[in-house]
Sequence to fold (82 residues):
Amino acid sequence: MRVAADVKGHSLSFLPQGDRVVYLKILPSEELTEAQAELEKAGQRRRVSPPAALNWLLYKHVEIVTRSLSTGRNACARPTGF
Fold:
């Protein structure tokens, strides 16, 4: 085995052709940081799961990155519908 790519994101998958990977990259956002801090405070008091509003913010501030394994170049896209 060998390292194919070093990425900063999550949910990495290989595309069917095998020459590229795709992953999600969360973009910096003040509203997302505040929502995560509120969730952490609530979690200290009791066990809670992320509310729908936080999940929506995560999807609002995400970029879909496709990376070529041969060239190392990235192509980024924002999901539509927000």
User: Anything to note?
Assistant: The chain has a mean pLDDT of 83. The beta strands are 10-14, 20-26, 62-68, 74-77. Residues 10-77 form one domain.
